[in-house]
Amino acid sequence: MRIIILLLFLLSFFSQAAAQVVSYPQVKAKVGDGVYLLLRRHGLDPTLHFGPFVELNKDNLGKDNSLYSGRTYLLPIDAATLAGNSGANSAEAKAEAAVLKFVPGSTTNVPLFGEKYARVEVQDQRLKGTVYYLVSGHGGPDPGAVGKYGPHLLAEDEYAYDVTIRLARRLMQHGATVYMIIQDKNDGIRDDAILQMDRDEVNYPSDRISLNQKERLRQRTAAINKLYASHKGAYQRMLSIHVDSRSKSQNIDVFFYHHENSALGEKLASTIHQTFTSKYSRHQPDRDYSGNVSQRSSLYVIKYSHPPTVFIELGNIRNDLDQRRFVIANNRQALANWIAEGVLADYRAK
Questions:
Q1: pTM above 0.85, yes or no
Q2: Which of 52, 69, 100 is the last residue of a domain?
Q3: Are 108 and 214 in contact (CB under 8 A)?
């Protein structure tokens, strides 16, 4: 039993009509509490729970959605499963139990994944106690690399994001705490071949992504490093996922960067690389896998992120063969699955 502080973690968001039949846990606000502090204390991610909380409690809030100390507030999670639990002697204890019970076979609803994939079942606790920061490249005003696919344009930020959010879901299924540092609240996991470009991605917790390139990089590393400090002592790793742009004729395999002074970053990169080597040997035995692991300490997110970091390039968005790796949804899922297998192998060998 543990708190899933997961950035993506949102237990079902119910409408006003549903509230008539759903039992919501009640908690008392303490002196100095704001909505964010109250939600965090009960294991809920404020960036995703703030809106539902305000909607549930709108008649009990002060100016600018402030809380009144001593008053009782509803948490936007379903407490029906706690009915008859005699071990919880107070509403607050029941609320905590609802958040903490996240075991194999349990399910949660994560709207960030989109309607089709929002329901997530925990398969096991192989990554229990781990914290992962997932960063998809570019976003907001910066689409990153762009390739031409027939009459369509393929943007790096959209395809990197889809692989990254699929990876987040896979890690959650194994009990990990996962933070999506770049988020698109309305895209979810998409199975379309052509992922439409937009500019509405935000930086954790919900900051508009800067127009300035260096500031964009500073935003994401600052968010990661603040979270890293809050999880001091935990097993923590960061993965930054990108799509490269090279000559249209150049077909490349997935490759990996790490900081020259990070033995743990190198180990994670090498383990994921070994997984890809094994997968290619099994699924495409007639071709060699040419992906590699190397140092690239000058990259901003590698240089300034505090957790051991791996920077992943998924392929060349301008190359016809590599484009199949991106436009076919099953291939994007395979990329996420293989990265997840490497992550699991790295943690097992810790």
A1: no
A2: 100
A3: no
